[in-house]
Each structure stands twice: as structure tokens, then as C-alpha cells.
């Protein structure tokens, strides 16, 4: 007998093969393509093959489509599409990702109420856990083979998420939870699968740490410390992984359904594992699943019309032509985002990130499409009162993202993209003048900080507007802490940007000059 474990992870609401940059845009990814892969594998399965499909989290949030569905949830029921699609594909079990919580527990419960499969989460507890979690694990019996799936979600969620979004929920240790359940499941099933919305904290070949060991990612520890795991499905980091680690086949299929993970396990007549293999199935050249696509005709029409609503006009060039230059010298788009943050919060200093190199800035006519494609996260705003020393430490963290090459050129460090792209953790600030000397060692690169044309002292206090993710220290910014918060705002940034632009119909594109680089 052979067991095939299929998985999707970090789809992030990218159902169609498009990033919605235009009505004609077409991209080689999307859940409709992955659905066709899964459907074909199930239809082509041999008599001695058992197929299991796991949806591994971060499915509901992350795209213009998912943002539209959330914003229209009270007038339309498009959020039920998610359950209809996954149920048609006969999902065997699903795990919640960290971004599922961005919209709060009530939205998770409402959106997934009609599912035909269990949401599993062994390390999610608390008085409200039963609202969103059905059970800690799922045991499936097919063709006489018992397959146990243990669900785990990165325990680091409280370090990013707004407290009200996870009120009544606890995230317990992934390692301790697996240590408890894997032996139990080993007694109950022939094959034990761990479905973990989390990634790897160490190099899979040599075991050396690839990030700070915070507990956010513990895939390597799971495999090195917990015996009895027969297959590990991972996600969260958006990496493309298919290999054996400590003899255990493991997958991580990237993001936006660009791949389907597949783990194949062969058993003998005594139901003992004799062979296993991991691979990723590229979805880029696959056609979309027409059955699922037919469910989405009205949604596709409505979202495209909504995205093309005009909001404001730009005088000048606010397109991002060089992302490295925008990070090194600031950019009119980033300065506008910071100005919006300052306008909302009443502060005169703000920091924001150029999330990735797909952010394009604004055309002369700004539409809803432009707002959502450039600001892809539902971040809310927080004002923190910090010291000059705190701000200097934050800027040192920003300066650490650059690397000076022998020929005098500058590039982003490998750590900003390996093993996971983390460009969203570099912030550009408005409201201060500051200097990075890249000839200096990391940690000693900030030469000066001027605030109101005065040198900012370490003992000075300053109010800074930042995202809620950054305000809780997200992205390795321990100098920020929610205990330093003096104000917080409920509306997310895409909504605040749209509101500001509707009020200021004409925006001047002005290149800032407050960040100086010495190389």
C-alpha cells in the first residue's frame, strides 16, 4: 500500500491566477491551479493508493480578494466560498495559520462554519478554543490504513497579533504538545503525520541556527527531538522544501499555491513503513479547476469592479523603479504612507516598511487596486513613546539590512532573504533626519539622529507611529514593546490610506532627503 499526503499552505487568499495588479494580469499560481493538481492525483490514484489532503493554514488572509471578502462580510456571503472550495476537494483536515487570526475569532468561526472537515490544533487552548478548533488531531482510516494527523500552529502568534483578536485563546509549546501526542497517535495509527503551520529554525543539512531561536519556527526541533513522526507538513516561511530530515519526509510548498506538497509513504503487508519520499508539484502550467472556478464568477466580477474605483490623483512620479534605492534613500510612496500614519495619529515621526519587491507605488490615478496591492497587510497603528536610545536601536536594526560590497556597491544582506524573505522588517522613517555609515560594523552604523533639527539624545522621549506588528517587537525589534503604547487605532492601514486619499484628492509626489547613506 502507498499513502500520499498532499498539502497546501500559505495560499493567502490567492485563489485566482492573478495578483490583481490589473484586470488582465495572469500569474503562474493560485488555488484554482492547485485544486486541479489535487483533483487529478485523486482521480488517477491506483487501487493500492490512499490519498490524504491537508490544508495547512494562512488560507483566509493576504490578498486583495481576501480583503474584499472581509470588508463585505456583512452585506455578502463570499466568505463562505472558502469552505465550499475546500469541501469540494475533500480536505481531510485543516490547520489554522497565524494570519487567520488577523481578522479575529468571530470571522474565523463564521467563515469556517460550513466546512466538512475538522480544524485541528493540539497546541491551541483557552476558553474560546472550541469556537475555532474542533479537535487536536484527526485519525482517518482508508483501505484499512489508519493515518493520524496532529495539528500544530506556531506558538508565536501572541507576539504579533492584537490581544483582542486572540482573546480567550492560548498558544502552547509546539514541542511539548508533540511530545505528548505523537506517542499516543503512534499507538492508534499506522502512519503519524504532523501538520505544522510553522517552519524551520535551523539549516536542514547541518543543524546550524538560521534565525533567533524564539519558538516561532521549531520544525527542526520536532524532527530531531520527537521520535515517531512519519511525515511532517510545514508552512509559514513560504519556503520551497521537499526532502528527508532525520529520515522523515517533509514538505513546505512556498506560497500562493505555487506548489502542492506531496509525501509518498509505502507500507508492507504488515502496515510497516518501508519507504518514503517528499516532492513539490509545480502548479504553474496547470489549468484551473473549472468546478471551483464556476463558484466564483460573481465574486470575480464584483472584486474587479471594486478594485477599479478611483480614489485620488498623484502629481509627479510615485512609482517605485528601484526598490534598493527606495530603501537606501527613502521614496515618495513610503513618505506618503508615513505622512498618513502621522496624520491619523497626530505624531510627527513614523516608520513603515516596503514589504517586498512587488510593491510598485502609485500611478497618476490611484484606485482601490493600487492601495491594496501596495499595502497587503491589515496592520493597525500604534503610537509608542520611546527613548532616543530605543529609536537608535531600531535604526541600527534597519541599517543591518544593508551590506557594503568590495566594489563600493550596496546590496541587501543574505539574511534578509534567506531562508525566508524578510524585507518587511526594514523600515523607512519620516520626521527625522538620520545617517547610516555602512563602513561601520553592524550595531554601530547610526551616526546621528536629528529631530526638529536638534540632535536626539538617548534620554529624550519621542512619540512614534508604527504598525501593530512592529509595536509588539515583531521582526526582531525588542526596543518596541506594547507596554510603551500610548495610543492604538482600530482601523487597518488600507482603510486609513483610502480615507486619507479620499480627503486629499491630489497628492504631490516629493522625494524625501532625510536619510543619508555613507559608503
UniProtKB/TrEMBL annotation:
Protein origin, superkingdom? Bacteria
Q: What's in the keyword line of the UniProt record?
A: Hydrolase, Nucleotide-binding, Signal
| GO cellular component terms listed in the entry, alphabetical order | outer membrane-bounded periplasmic space
State any single GO MF term.
hydrolase activity
Task: One Pfam family, please name it.
Answer: 5_nucleotid_C
In this chain the 5'-Nucleotidase C-terminal domain maps to 328-481
Q: Which Gene3D superfamilies does the annotation name? A: 3.60.21.10, 5'-Nucleotidase, C-terminal domain
Q: Which residues form a coiled coil?
A: none
Q: Does the keyword Nucleotide-binding apply?
A: yes
Please provide the Gene Ontology terms (biological process) for this protein: nucleotide catabolic process
Claim: Hydrolase is one of the keywords in the record: yes
Q: Which InterPro entries match?
A: 5'-Nucleotdase_C, 5'-Nucleotdase_C_sf, 5_nucleotidase/apyrase, Calcineurin-like_PHP, Metallo-depent_PP-like
Q: Report the residue ranges that make up the Calcineurin-like phosphoesterase domain in this protein.
A: 4-239
Task: Report the sequence similarity comment from the record.
Answer: Belongs to the 5'-nucleotidase family.
Q: What is this protein called?
A: 2,3-cyclic-nucleotide 2-phosphodiesterase
State the species of origin. Liquorilactobacillus hordei DSM 19519
Upper classification of the organism: Bacteria, Bacillati, Bacillota, Bacilli, Lactobacillales
